[in-house]
Amino acid sequence: MKETLIEMIQDFYPYAKEQMGFNKPVRIFLRKDIQNAQDPLGKTAFYDPMNASVTLYHMNRHPKDVMRSLAHELMHHKQNCDGRLGPEIGEGPVDENMELSKLEEEANMAGFLIRRWEEDCKKRGKKWPNAYYDYNLAKAEGEEIDESLSLQEKKKKKKKKKKKKAKLKKKPNPWAVCTVSVGRDDKDKYEKCVLSVKEKHGIKKESLQESKLSNNSDYDRSLDDTSESDTVKDHYSRRAERVFEKLMEKYKTNKESEVSKDG
Q1: Distance between CA 235 and CA 196 in Å, rounded?
Q2: From CA 240, how far away is CA 256, in angstroms rounded?
Q3: Which of 77, 102, 180, 212 has the fewest CB atoms within 10 Å around its CB?
Q4: pLDDT score for 192
């Protein structure tokens, strides 16, 4: 956010100088103050007439809000250049100091310059990147940012994932449906059933894994192939039967060998 603010200030400064008409340069500082940022009534900015400098507190603030503070303080600089902001003015209370009250009202009106500058930026097609980085990037760059922004993004992503899962759950598995309804003995009938179920529920070929039954029969698969990541769920029941049969054969062979040894 700091880099974006610097670019915005560099663009606004000559505009403000022309509109306000101050004739002396001013130094601008951006200050990161954690303690001040935590105070609801903390400082937003201040102008130092002795050094002709503006200090802006930018932490946890919207860039546009910081720019309004800058416009306010630049008007104080204008007042100083005109000789109207002397040490005799004092700091307040505002209600007890009419001169100070008038100067503050004038500085507050300068905030309207941000609106005019913003409109000028749009006319020129001037844009800046998103000032609020993601939480991890902001942390790496030493900027503090409201963690709720990061949490909101995470929640949005979770909602999107849930919606996708919900859509997939609503759509039936055509191969499982047809296995139960028509069986697999009649290959042509089975394939027609699968196509009709897919067409009825708007299932695209790429959205669910195609059945391997016609090209690579489950009966011909190697029992040593335990990965079988490309096998659809309803094929597992057939595989389980074959594994069980193989285990039973192995068990019977072991029993027969034991009997022959005893004999």
Answers
A1: 20
A2: 24
A3: 180
A4: 86
